[in-house]
Amino acid sequence: MIKDIVVSLSVGRPRDVAGDFAISVATAFDAHLSGVAFAYEPVIGGMLVPVPDASLLESFRTENSRAAQRAKREFDEATRRAGVRSDSIALPATADEAARRFGTIARDYDLSVLAQAEPDGDVAETLAIEAALFNSGRPVLVVPYIQSTGLKLDRVMVCWDGSRNAARAVADAMPLVRRAGAIEVVTIESQERRNELAGAKIAEHLARHGLKVELKPIVASDADVANTILSHAADTAADLIVMGGYGHSRLREFILGGATDGMLKSMTVPTLMAH
């Protein structure tokens, strides 16, 4: 069951997309919700720079701290109105430090919720998603920055490629999948398989849990996997996508797999990922 959730609050945004969605998840599962608001160190020219003008640097820090405290207060008020048990904290950190800290914090929760970075957004949001996905050992629910509604589970789309990460994602998503009105297992192959139906075994596994499952093999030669997934999600009005997150770390820099990177940049549907 999902009983303990942590959310990285959307600091400095007109609307806290991650916080609002996390509240809807916590409400659905009667879960406790913890909010984390990071007060980022000032970034100039894309790099942390020791600004000669100390007063300017302090002004940036003060502004970011106020934004984090404001996000924290608004989250506390929103959870109070929703009747959700919660706590919150505001932490000062650079973008890199914030990502590492959130990845560590998320280890103590059933699920972490973060907002997708906006096209012109700060790199900090993407770093936090990557750290939660690859360093927490827990599932991550990424919410599109355009998301305007709370959690819906009328149609859940499970992306299956037979990988370890996909298997982990399916297992981690079971509390959500069990509540789905309809479940579709989607496979994407470059060519049609003969005498073998991709995804049949995982669909059978879910059916043994008493779930109603439909198998949808998609043949898309040389297609962009992320775009194929999102196109099918739009065609079927999917409310949630479940998929494995692929990537690895090299010299402390995250290298994302193509499908994962494509989803994080272009997602239009809340997506649960696991690694």
Describe the structure in your own words.
The model is unreliable at 247-256 (pLDDT under 50). The chain contains eight helices and twelve strands. It starts with a strand and ends with a strand. The protein is globular and about 65 Å long. The protein folds into two domains: 4-143, 3-Layer(aba) Sandwich (Rossmann fold); 155-274, Rossmann fold (3-Layer(aba) Sandwich). The chain has a ten-stranded mixed β-sheet with strand order 3-2-1-4-5-12-9-6-7-8, sandwiched between helices. Strands 10-11 form a two-stranded antiparallel sheet. The chain has 275 residues and is of the alpha/beta class. The longest helix has 29 residues, at 54-82.
In brief:
This protein is α/β, with parallel strands linked by helices and about 280 residues long. The protein has helices at about 15-30, 55-80, 95-105, 125-135, 165-175, 200-210, 225-235, 260-265, and strands spanning about 5-10, 30-40, 85-95, 110-115, 140-145, 155-160, 180-190, 215-220, 240-245, 245-250, 255, 270-275. Strands 3-2-1-4-5-12-9-6-7-8 form a ten-stranded mixed sheet, sandwiched between helices. It has a two-stranded antiparallel sheet with strand order 10-11.
